[in-house]
Design a protein that fits this description.
Blueprint: E1 9-12, H1 17-24, E2 30-32, H2 46-62, E3 70-81, E4 84-86, H3 92-102, E5 106-117, E6 122-133, H4 138-146, E7 167-171, H5 174-178, H6 182-191, H7 195-198
Parallel strand pairs: 1-2, 1-3
Antiparallel strand pairs: 3-4, 3-5, 5-6, 6-7
Length: 199
Amino acid sequence: MRKKESDIKLILASGSPRRKQLLGFLKIPFEVQTADIEEVSNLETPEEQACDISEQKGRAVFKKISEENALIISSDTMVILEGEIYGKPENRDNAREMLKKLSGKTHDVVTAVSFIDSSGEAFSFFDKTQVSFNEIDPVILEEYLDTEDSLDKAGAYGIQGPSLTFISRIEGSYSNVVGFPLEKVIQKLKERGYWTKLK
């Protein structure tokens, strides 16, 4: 099908294969451009920080594109336990320390998503999911660390992988924990008038 002049080109500002896969489920053509930023925010709450970093990623890609009719989607995920934010671990020891703290407890996963259109206007929102861990058996913990699944993920785990051996319950959006809240993305694309132009 030929695109109309009013149609929008969609750009995903993320190198995450998980976000690429999730966005692909929408059956909308898109291209990927990575955003290499420091991922630091001075804002107060985790939700504000996630939205800020997500928008920073989108703006980094916005500076690189030349399309007159494009929509950039960027995202950032944080794991929060008792007010402490858990980002990506620096190494195996750091991952082990994070997972021990999360063991046997319920934490929040906040994923923020930002839309930036060709005018530079940004709109950000977030979703929150509660994830409960069983007490992680030390042998299972080391076996999980051996997979190296933890090293590129906030909170040192990915819900769609081997960590399912110690995740007991989730309350809220599953895709939000993976790193891209599909249900809310569709809702906001429709509310902002982008959905029909992308489809």
